[in-house]
Amino acid sequence: MHYNLFMNKLLVFFILFANIASNAESQNSNHFLECDASLKVEGDIASTGVCQFGEYQIEFFKNLRAATAHLCNNQPFCGVQADWKGADSYIDTIVKDLNGNIVATNLVENVDAILLNSSSINTPYLVLQTKRPGSAGPGSYFHIFTASPEFKKVVKIGPLWNSKKGIYTNENQDLLVDIWVKNLPPENPALANSISYPITLKLTDNEFVPALEQMKNELKVYNQDELQKINSKAKEINALVTKYILNPDNEIEEYKLTSPGFMLMDIYQLGFMQMIINLVREGRIDLAWEFFDRAIPARYDSREEFNLPMYKTKKIMKETINNWLTNLEYWNEIYQLNQGKNN
């Protein structure tokens, strides 16, 4: 029963995979890639599919007893190695040439699962995705291979902002991918307060470089409802900071009032820094500073003796954040997205 259920899921996936391939024929489909999702099981090892990529054959193997086997989610073209000592095999992928000679095994080291990404259909490359448990974003990477003039890895890219979006093309047929960039606020607080933002890259001469024009074309245009939500968030943070300053009815314990960490933690958890970076990434640094001015009340300076030196007053806080922005990864591109705005 379980085998029939698995095969039904496999058939549905293969039909979807075939439909994608059919639709891509009129676009930029990969004429070098042909795949067979036939499932073969020998003991604890399942061959989950074979792809012919140019003059090379890639086969995927999943160890059914591996703790991370669930990462394949019953998908074909997915490999998982054994994760215990003494296993009979530690193979997740094998590449052979036309003569049947093995030219490569385990195409990516130190991963929990490796699978064929559907981006392979729309590009002249073989695109493999690697996963780690629970990795909705930062744990997923793309590994791009070519079969010309020989089978070799071109580049690794990630972590991915949206692994489901994959590698895509624009009207100029540029190969694009959105990566996940992560940073910490200026005083390097707990990782729970980290901020993140996407950067679009394009493949040029076997290297991914920032795709500035693509990012400019995709900048968000905020409507009135979205602007109202930004304003509401600023008011919420303003009210929290004011509570720390006035402490009505002794709502906040004394030790929290005299330590800067607690107030910062609370406003970070409300999305203070993430909102600023979201607006700046979308080319609206003007809105970011409007948000800052509304979120941090002027009376913030009245508790300067308890604030961190880099956040001592509202003015100093703004200068600190501005300097921090200029040190962000890909700041040169982000700066150009904000040209013409009030800096």
In short:
The chain folds into 2 domains: 2-162, no CATH class; 224-337, no CATH class. The protein is built from 9 helices and 15 strands. The chain has helices spanning 2-24, 212-217, 224-246, 254-257, 260-269, 272-281, 285-295, 314-325, 331-337; strands spanning 33-36, 40-42, 45-53, 56-63, 78-79, 93-96, 102-105, 113-116, 126-131, 141-146, 152-157, 168-169, 175-183, 195-204, 207-210.
Please give a handful of descriptors for the protein shown:
single chain; 343 residues; alpha+beta; 2 domains; six-stranded antiparallel sheet; five-stranded antiparallel sheet; 15 strands; 31% helix; elongated; disordered N terminus
Notes on the protein architecture:
The strands form three sheets. Strands 1, 2, 3, 4, 6 and 7 form a six-stranded antiparallel β-sheet that branches. Strands 5-8-9-10-11 form a five-stranded antiparallel β-sheet, with no helix packed on it. It is 31% helix and 24% strand. The chain is elongated, with a radius of gyration of 25 Å. It folds into two domains: 161 residues, no CATH class; 114 residues, no CATH class. Helix 3 packs parallel to helix 7. It has 343 residues and is α+β, with helices and mostly antiparallel strands.
